[in-house]
Amino acid sequence: MGGNHVYSLSYVCLPGWEDRRGLFCRPRAAPALAAYGALREDYRCQAILYGTTTMLGGFADGPAPRLPRQGAPLAKEDSVNPQGQRMGQFVVSVDPKGSLAFSGPVLERKGRPAAHVIQAVTEQVDPAYLTYLRQVGVSYLFAGKEQLDCPLLLEKLAARFGVQRLMVAGGGVVNWSFLQAGCVDEVSLVVAPVADGSTTAVSSFERGGFLPNRGPVALSLAEAKPLAGDGLWLRYTARGKEKTAP
Questions:
Q1: Distance between CA 158 and CA 175 in Å, rounded?
Q2: Number of Cβ atoms within 10 Å of the Cβ of 104
Q3: Beta carbons of 208 and 173 less than 8 angstroms apart
Q4: What is the dihedral of CA 127, 128, 132, 137, to 10 degrees?
Q5: Which end of the chain has the least Cβ crowding within 10 Å, N or C?
Q6: Cα-trace Rg, the chain
Q7: How far apart are CA 245 and CA 136, in angstroms?
Q8: How far apart are CA 70 and CA 73, in angstroms?
Q9: Preceding omega of 58 cis (within 30 degrees of 0)
């Protein structure tokens, strides 16, 4: 996998569900939220990867517009924006069929370095969408025919963009995609002291219907560190990777 180191970082409330109901906006969870933001920087990753739902919720410019076909369709080959490639910081968007809109090739958020957008697509993508991505300057990489090929994507990120350290930050389906494929070196969980009894809460790891039905992944506890405000930082390594995670 090109020597990549991959980290899965989640921010959860008890008993391990990702926040989808605003619980982390409450004062009791503020210290854990601050720690989560600081830890993202500590890993010194060149790229952070999100799934389609997460991108749509706070990074992309909504769903892709209806795209008219213009001229001959582009070949289903990788496209790299040279200016974006030189930025050295990237947001990787897993969007298998091409459903997200972007106003430009760079994402800028307060407190974070500007990052070039890389779309990870499959061969299910509409060729008209590839034309659209080129027009707005977003790079794209093909990683699989019908479903995401995580090892292939890591290889291409290393070869095309020099990415050696990648953070996988959700949602649950994307986290599980990389973990069950054996691509994650470390699972890092920041637990806030807030409980939610909702039966619809989203898990940090969730198998999508398009993924193979593989068994649970065994983890080894590397560190358990109390945080200010009764939060907890848990670091796990995947079994068999204890000696490879830096």
A1: 19
A2: 12
A3: yes
A4: 20
A5: C
A6: 18
A7: 36
A8: 7
A9: no
Taking only the tens place, the pLDDT of each residue in 123-144 is 999 999 999 999 999 999 999 9
Place of tokens 């292939």: 152
How far does CA 226 lie from the centroid of its chain?
Answer: 26
Taken in order of first residue, the domains within the chain and their CATH numbers are 1-46+170-246 (3.40.430.10), 47-163 (no CATH)
Please report which confidence band the pLDDT of residue 4 belongs to, taking 50, 70 and 90 as the band edges.
Answer: confident
CA 64-92-133 angle, 5° bins: 35
* Mean pLDDT score of the chain: 86
Residue 167 CA to residue 107 CA, distance in Å, equals 16
To the question of pTM greater than 0.85 for the whole model, the response is: yes
Rounded mean pLDDT, 205-234: 85
CB 144 within 8 A of CB 123: yes
Query: Do 174 and 6 form a contact (C-beta atoms < 8 A)?
Result: no
Average the pLDDT over each of 53-57, 110-114, 226-230 and give the range with the smallest value.
110-114
